[in-house]
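Quick one:
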Amino acid sequence: MTGWYGLGADLVVLIHTGVVFFVVLGGVLVFRWTRVACVHWPSVLWAVGIEWRGAGCPLTPLEKWLLRHAG
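Output:
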């Protein structure tokens, strides 16, 4: 991919992957740093709510838009 759109799409993919890993594996961090729970639990509830309603992640349309413009 070339250009700013491609770079933006790559950045969104990295952020998206990081969010997914944090939601799935962030509970392990809570055992080490209890303050992480203040961010982890809301992110888990948000992810479960999205899946339960059948909605998509807000990052997915942004990623698709950037990919479309990148060619």
